[in-house]
Design brief:
Strand order of the largest sheet: 3-2-1-4-5-7-6
Structural class: alpha/beta
CATH class of the largest domain: Alpha Beta
Order of helices and strands: EHEHEHEHEEEHEHHEEHEEH
Number of strands: 12
Largest sheet: 7 strands, parallel
CATH architecture of the largest domain: 2-Layer Sandwich
Strand content: 15-25%
CATH topology of the largest domain: Dihydrodipicolinate Reductase, domain 2
Helix content: 25-40%
Length: 296
């Protein structure tokens, strides 16, 4: 599967998120998936091998031995990521962190994606952050948020062990990113994992308290932000919008459209789509194949 004409990338982690990353990179015409690294034999490594990719259960040590890579996508867990960055920081690879560590430069495509190529260590916050921040950032251009609340609800079946172990970090890092991208003094994030059957799609509800809300402009801003996100996440849709004098409520739903993900796994779909998009653009720019950083 190796193609020296394309940026050479590795996936670190072969759980639920890693399996979908493998599929997305497989379908990308811009990336060469050169290695899938886990820390033990797993279904993800088996599937990658079935598709013809090199696999290893040697984890970060194997990534270092087989490198250098233009980009490494870390789909492990927040506790392991700091050590992965310490190991890769001198290797010349762009490290894209899909875990909620808060380390590295925070990137949200469509908001500050053009900054990705200038940094070696990138952080994608969380699935809820990727779904909410483009909408909230657009709203913050129209008003001054004083308080923002974001509630993410996902199917239990789409939350793997690492996701469950990292829920505290997920909440903390997502809250901090919301404050950074909106200027809001307070941000509260909540996460619900639903065991319902059939499994519900990934839903994110945002409540913004603000001064000088502009109802006539709000709808257009939300629609424009959603349309931009659908360029890389086709299953992203706004399901409700309510605007009062000092309050805006927006709900969005993300259904997975990949070939291997069930429709309810929109949480995985959105953060993986962002990761692959950033890998395509930043690795290509760093290799000198584009004259200018990309923008959306």
């Amino acid at each position: 599967m190796e193609d020296r004409q394309r940026p050479r990338v590795a996936v670190l982690g072969a759980g639920l998120i890693g399996i979908d990353l493998i599929d997305k990179i497989h379908r990308s015409p811009k990336l060469d998936l050169a290695l899938v690294a886990g820390r033990r034999s797993s279904l993800g490594l088996y599937r990658a091998a079935e598709m013809g990719y090199a696999t290893t259960a040697g984890g970060i040590d194997a990534v270092l031995a087989d490198g250098p890579f233009d980009a490494v996508l870390d789909a492990t867990n927040a506790e392991s990521h700091a050590a992965h960055w310490a190991a890769l920081s001198g290797a010349g690879s762009t490290l894209i962190d899909l875990t909620p560590t808060g380390l590295g430069t925070v990137i949200v495509p469509g908001v500050n994606g053009h900054q990705a190529a200038a940094h070696q260590h990138l952080n994608l916050i969380s699935c809820g952050g990727q779904a909410a921040i483009p909408i909230l950032h657009a709203l913050a251009k129209l008003c001054t948020p004083t308080y923002i609340e974001v509630v993410s609800t996902g199917a239990s079946a789409s939350a793997g062990r690492a996701t469950r172990l990292n829920l505290d970090q997920y909440i903390e890092v997502t809250s901090a990113a919301i404050r950074t991208f909106t200027g809001a003094a307070q941000a509260k994030v909540m996460v619900n994992l639903s065991p319902a059957r059939p499994a519900p799609p990934f839903r994110v509800t945002m409540t913004v308290l603000a001064d000088e809300v502009h109802p006539a402009r709000t709808g257009g801003a939300v629609r424009d932000a959603a349309r931009a996100i659908r360029a890389w996440v086709p299953g992203f849709h706004v399901t409700s919008l309510a605007v009062d004098a000092d309050r805006i409520s927006v709900s969005v739903e993300v259904t997975a459209t990949g070939s291997r993900l069930p429709r309810h796994a929109g949480s995985i779909d959105i953060i993986n789509a962002a990761a692959v998009l950033i890998a395509e653009r930043s690795a290509t720019v760093l290799r000198g194949r584009e004259p200018h950083p990309w923008t959306l």
